[in-house]
Amino acid sequence: MSTRVLRHIGELTTNDPTQGDQSAMGRILNAAMVLDEHEVLWTGPDAKAPAADEMIDVAHCAVVPGFVDSHTHLVFAGERSDEFEARMAGRPYDGGGILRTVASTRKASAEQLREATSKRSHELRLGGVTTLEVKSGYELTLDGEARLVGLAREVTAEVTFLGAHVVPEEFGHDREGYVQLVAGAMLEACTSEAKWADVFCDRGAFDVDEARLVLTSARRAGLGVRLHANQLADIGAISLGVELDAASVDHCTHVSDADLEALGASRTVATLLPGAEFSTRSPYPSARRFLDAGVCVALASDCNPGTSYVTSMGLVIALAVREMGMTPDEALYAATRGGAMALRRDDIGRLSPGSRADVVVLDAPRSAHLAYRPGAPLVRETLLSAP
Amino acid sequence: MSTRVLRHIGELTTNDPTQGDQSAMGRILNAAMVLDEHEVLWTGPDAKAPAADEMIDVAHCAVVPGFVDSHTHLVFAGERSDEFEARMAGRPYDGGGILRTVASTRKASAEQLREATSKRSHELRLGGVTTLEVKSGYELTLDGEARLVGLAREVTAEVTFLGAHVVPEEFGHDREGYVQLVAGAMLEACTSEAKWADVFCDRGAFDVDEARLVLTSARRAGLGVRLHANQLADIGAISLGVELDAASVDHCTHVSDADLEALGASRTVATLLPGAEFSTRSPYPSARRFLDAGVCVALASDCNPGTSYVTSMGLVIALAVREMGMTPDEALYAATRGGAMALRRDDIGRLSPGSRADVVVLDAPRSAHLAYRPGAPLVRETLLSAP
């Protein structure tokens, strides 16, 4: 097993409070780090750097843990820029556009979907994402959803079954029948490849009782649970998430004080998706409210063709700082360690002995540049641990 | 002279209303374009594409004119991310930070400044900028400003003398003396390399009378004029710009109806800089008000280390759509043809016979993706005409 030492790290963010300045960011200035193909072996001051088989001089750049994008809808065909244009000209978004993507995804071959997904996952990677979650949800048939979780499994282990994305047209007069299918045979067809189940629990999508039915079935089948909660309206989805010990409740655009209190007392992460508010011109939730209530916050891209065609975690961080009241450090933490917590992973989202060797070298002296230089190509190099 | 033909252009934006759909965007679907090293020779439907020495198949991508970034402060040393962090935590921006950059720029060697400027201009280029304006303004001494316009001239012909950026510390008790220096000997030392003069005409910077003095001297010396107008407060800078037939008034965060009427009746362009509002968390001006008043609008990056460390015109376009009420087409036009008008250039910002061969091939089927996919690396290739 060969080892590498990164030398002359201007600012190392470990997200490990036992390291460096002992803050939540565990920050070490003038640092070094030793890795092998799989994991971090050592971090500390550059002056004490041990020898290794290979030396990489990062020339005083900042180094951060690879981004964990814990919420994407990466497997789809087609695009909906015309819908985006209409919305920007003033028509409100009601979520109805998902069925357009369902129609184009159903028509696409596996090879077409594989190519499109791979292109988007490559874009995320270029922007420093080293772990990503990918949802199904654009076929909404038994075979189709099984196909999508299989395709998602080709790019990540964090695969989420989202049969309960919307009710497909053919079940327009039989919601209950569709929910039964999702919670029964469709779920069963997806459990071998999926690790998670998710429900779009919102106005115009699935209500709390429907979501509870699907997610409890999923839990019985051995999947972890997460949900789209209160993006469009407060329908009680966040408290359902806490009730079910969901790993994460996502969006949370509408949140009550009672929700915040319940979240703060739980281990459920609130995953904020500012790309969605940006792309739908909706009011941003205040991340400050969550942080002040002691809630663990994650940031993710929500990459999807309707409401957040975003593949840049750098932009997500910048938006969270500009629009949601986070500091650059809080946003970086949420995009790394927060994402890891939203996936209930302890081996990623940090850089300390035993964590995976998923590392981003920034073309900047401080990680605050991710928010200070929005849109800039700041990811100089991404090191990815061997599988 | 060898010729190239771009074939299979999914959507060609020419910004020439005599072409294609005869709209302001002059859009041609399924298009082709013939170029030589210097200029566009032909545009039209792909089915009628003439032969050329070389064929480039753009595989149904969208093609747009290269972006014209008509407002940058590219030549500086140092960074101010700590100031950005403080501001995001709630301290208001008063413009005082410029003097920090003056101090670090004065200390930097020509080689250091050359390298830093070249890195930033490379980032702009990667993002599709084919013409950029660069201002001085970070030395504020006779020799220093002459040095900066010389360095700017190494990366562009569109060089702007901005001695009237702020009053330097050594003239703290002699504003009038500094204005006389700028309008006299300092201007004289910069006229050989500069094409434009600019004044930061705003609260806390220079007032309208001071700006008039500097800009009328500059005009007598043969320079074109432009100005930073009403970013922080309405002090009458926009009407001064119209009075002086300035090529552009920039920022215009604060604008009255009378200003809009005057601009609409003039040939002065309003250059909006949403990166500055983003990075200072200030309210965005409404581009709609300008457009509805018949004002020609440009969009630019304002790249500078204090209030808009932005090098992505794609992000500028996305922000203008999300925050300023522009359609994706209006924003694209402003970032190309609008920028050209702000530099009083007719050879750039469009793609039609006789224009320069400055072309951006997007990794997208429609140019609306620039706003629909904020932060994505959409510039697939940039063709730049030979000097």
How would you explain this protein's 3D organization?
2 copies of one chain form a homodimer. Chain A has 13 helices and 15 strands. Chain A has 387 residues and is α/β, with parallel strands linked by helices. Chain A folds into 2 domains: 97 residues, Urease, subunit C, domain 1; 276 residues, Metal-dependent hydrolases (TIM Barrel, Alpha-Beta Barrel), CATH 3.20.20. In chain A, strands 6-7-8-9-10-11-12-13 form an 8-stranded parallel β-sheet. In chain A, strands 1, 2, 3, 4, 5, 14 and 15 form a 7-stranded mixed β-sheet that branches. In chain A, β10, α7 and β11 form a beta-alpha-beta unit. In chain A, α4 crosses α5, α5 runs parallel beside α6 and α11 crosses α12. The interface between A and B is large, with 36 and 36 residues.
CATH class of the largest domain in chain A: Alpha Beta
Q: Do you know the CATH topology of the largest domain in chain A?
A: TIM Barrel
Helix segment tally of chain A: 13
The oligomeric state of the chains shown is homodimer
CATH superfamily of the largest domain in chain A: Metal-dependent hydrolases
Mean pLDDT of chain A: 96
Strand content of chain A: 15-25%
Task: Report the order of strands and helices of chain A.
Answer: EEEEEEHHHEHEHEHEHEHEHHEHHEHE
The tally of beta strands of chain A, per DSSP, is 15
Structural class call of chain A reads: alpha/beta
Number of domains of chain A: 2
Major sheet: arrangement of strands of chain A: 6-7-8-9-10-11-12-13
- Sheet with the most strands of chain A? 8 strands, parallel
Shape, principal axes of CA atoms of chain A: globular
Residues in helices of chain A, as a percent range:
25-40%
Show the largest interface: A-B, 36 and 36 residues
Based on CA atoms alone, the radius of gyration of chain A comes out at 20 Å
**Poorly predicted parts of chain A:** none
